[in-house]
Design brief:
GO terms for molecular function: serine-type endopeptidase activity; toxin activity. The chain is about 5% helix and about 30% strand. With about 475 residues, it is mainly beta. The protein has two domains: about 180 residues, Thrombin, subunit H (Beta Barrel); about 260 residues, Beta Barrel (Thrombin, subunit H), CATH 2.40.10.10. It has a seven-stranded antiparallel sheet with strand order 5-4-1-2-3-7-6, with no helix packed on it. Strands 19-20-21-24-23-22 form a six-stranded antiparallel barrel. A hairpin with an 8-residue loop joins strand 1 and strand 2.
């Protein structure tokens, strides 16, 4: 078991504060691995009392990096050490010890990477390993729960030649039995955001073309996808919603596109296809050879999605296998408040979709239009002081708006995905309401409930449809 500085620079130790007069006495109880500047991968049970659902007091927990000796009970001040507190904890929804025993901790301050504190690459692929592996230990010479299992010779693209790759997190230790680790590779969807951040922002189309609504080329908006539903035993496929490609295998859309509002259940995903590389609303002989069709493997709706109150109308689709990149199929980067421009009222943004025109006429090809962002206060005036959730934003002007059938489609500002088409009033009269992407980029991979094919409904319907329709007579779901 390796235990020198070379194999511990990415290891963190979790300390629990003991009750002494100076409040500086700590006891090590778990470990973790740095995977980004502000995120740590560890075990869920480390933060639960007796491995049950009651959480520990986070205010009494500190995370230390650059620790080579945990035998010293007091918090030492040393040049090698960095101490942090917990800002957020993201755990697996399906956690049942020792299964799904993985958690991500967001620290209050970014780690400063140096020779003592750094991140470890982690596997992003669901595969078996034949390499040589090492567990993480501390000076007590005992393997510690929450620590990483690092392997070499795995053939994983993420593996570092010198450091190896993180393939497991210690879950259960038994003196007489092999140590049980949870495989990081089985939870690789946590890497969706990392992959998405690699994409460059698109050229802003609005300053180039002042649009009142026109046909769009799919090469201008290659991130746009269509959701199509099967009718008449598959003889007819009709576009009913849109979406945005954020990686070659994941699509962002509106949750209500795939939720049945009469009973709150997820629709039959077997009857839905995700189509990329197309600018047409219907299937033709020509488009059949140009389009790329995929089945839905899983649908992740936001766990706080509430159709009754129009909140968190956001979901992620995982297709059965990745799309092939081309000039007609490219992902779009998600808006991130840390790295992208702050949104301003009146800023021109692009919306696109396959929905109705303002005269309620159907379209035969993809449409796009530039619309200004509208302040929340002004938007609430349009909707008679109706409360808008902080996860929503408004955009649109007279004659320029999204409409029925555009739901789930993109709102793009300065070349990045800012919003998802959600709902609105009269088309072209009231501003459209969009789900704000930046509200979710902090934890898109761990704040969603999963539905597979086949699957069971994840939530009961939360509201009374009849009352909502009477109260919001002019509200449309796009």
């Amino acid at each position: 078991m390796q235990n020198n500085m070379f194999f511990t620079f990415y290891v963190l130790v979790f300390f629990y504060q003991l009750y002494d007069e100076r409040k500086t006495l700590y006891r090590a109880f778990c470990a973790g691995s740095i995977i980004t500047k502000e995120r740590v991968l560890t075990s869920t049970h480390c933060f639960l009392t007796n491995r049950k659902r009651r959480k520990r007091n986070f205010n009494l927990i500190k995370i230390a990096g650059g620790i080579l000796n945990t035998l010293t009970p007091y918090q030492p001040i040393h040049v090698t050490q960095q101490w942090r507190t917990i800002e957020h904890l993201y755990s697996q929804r399906f956690y049942r010890f020792p299964a799904y025993n993985l958690a991500i901790v967001k620290v209050n301050k970014e780690w400063v990477f140096n020779e003592y504190v750094n991140k470890i690459p982690y596997t992003k692929w669901n595969q078996d390993f034949d390499g040589v592996c090492y567990g993480t230990t501390v000076k007590t010479t005992k393997e510690i729960e929450g620590g990483g299992l690092i392997c070499f010779g795995t053939n994983d693209p993420a593996e570092d030649v010198l450091v190896g790759v993180l393939v497991g997190v210690t879950s259960l230790i038994n003196v007489d039995l092999p140590t049980l680790h949870n495989r990081v590779g089985l939870h690789y969807k946590w890497s969706v955001l990392e992959e998405n951040k690699q994409y460059e922002a698109y050229v802003d189309i609005c300053p180039i073309r002042i649009l009142g609504g026109t046909n769009a080329k799919i090469t201008d908006i290659p991130y746009q996808v269509a959701l199509r539903k099967k009718y008449l035993a598959g003889y007819i496929w009709s576009t009913f919603c849109g979406g945005s490609l954020i990686t070659m295998k994941y699509v962002v859309t509106a949750a209500h596109c795939l939720i049945n509002h009469t009973n709150g259940k997820v629709k039959k995903l077997n009857n839905v296809r995700v189509v990329a590389g197309t600018s047409r609303t219907t299937v033709s002989l020509i488009s059949w050879f140009e389009e790329h069709w995929r089945r839905i493997r899983r649908f992740y709706k936001h766990k706080y999605y509430n159709w009754t109150y129009l909140e968190h109308d956001f979901g992620v689709i995982e297709v059965n296998y990745a799309f092939i990149a081309s000039n007609k199929i490219k992902p779009i980067r998600l808006h991130d408040l840390k790295t992208d421009k702050v949104l301003e009222d009146g800023q021109q943004c692009v919306i696109s979709g396959f929905g109705l025109k303002e005269d309620d006429k159907a379209v035969v090809s993809l449409q796009m239009v530039c619309v200004p962002l509208v302040s929340s206060s002004l938007c609430e005036e349009y909707y008679d002081e109706m409360y808008l959730h902080p996860s929503s934003l408004c955009a649109g002007s007279t004659g320029k708006d999204s409409c029925e059938g555009d739901s789930g489609g993109p709102l793009v500002c300065s070349g990045v995905l800012v919003g998802v088409v959600s709902w609105g009033g009269v088309c072209g009269v009231h501003p459209g309401v969009y789900t704000k992407i930046s509200e979710y980029t902090g934890g898109i991979e761990v704040t969603f409930e999963k539905s597979s094919v086949p699957r069971r409904a994840m939530n009961k319907f939360l509201g009374i449809v009849t009352i909502m329709l009477l109260f919001f007579e002019n509200i449309r779901f796009l």
